[in-house]
Amino acid sequence: MSMNIAIDGPAGAGKSTIAKKLAKKLGFIYVDTGAMYRAMAYYFLQHGILAEDEKAVAEACQKVDVTIAYEGEEQQVILNGENVNGVIRTEEVGNMASATSIYPVVRSKLVELQQGLAAKADVIMDGRDIGTCVLPNAQIKIYLTASAAVRAKRRYDELTAKGVSCDLEEIQRDIVDRDYRDMHRETSPLKQAEDAVLVDSSEMDAEEVADAILEIYKKAKRV
Ligand code: DC
Description:
This protein is an alpha/beta fold. The protein contains nine helices and eight strands. 38% of the residues are buried.
């Protein structure tokens, strides 16, 4: 049976940074499920489909094929045969992903892909509903969070380092809105699974968080 580690948490908690580090240390495959919702959202944006228009979203879903491939350790998301990794990291796509991931028709397509990947290999998968819905039997479940202020500051520093001019308050507002929507939707809302370990990274750097989760993993393997 494959070993599955689920990491859930709100936007900007550092899930992907940590999951990538751990995947490397443990020799697991990293699966970024947010990127899959982003690829679908990118398609909707490209085709002028509004997030509120559930019927149009459902129709579009029939024309969308999302798969993943790996270049070295880097996950690549393939949308209808085209690698879209380079275009899905914008705030616009992230917000659209949050707004359209509320629909069961969007989720069911991607959940199937995610479960197939986890059945085949040892994976660290991050997202919003991994421990609660996608991999309820994952051997390790982590709920990784940090205060909204800390998450906004990290995002601000990341963008500024890339030379993108941005406003800290606006980023924080966006994060709070996105958290609210992800936590209050009807289908698979973001919440801590009952058997997940809570890790608050507000006062920790990435290396400390990775070490803390590694300890949880080692302890779980001993019992
Ligand atoms: O992790 P991210 O910022 O790339 O995710 C973008 C959006 O996709 C997020 O706001 C909600 C949605 N999402 C989801 O509903 N379920 C997941 N497992 C992953 C992401």
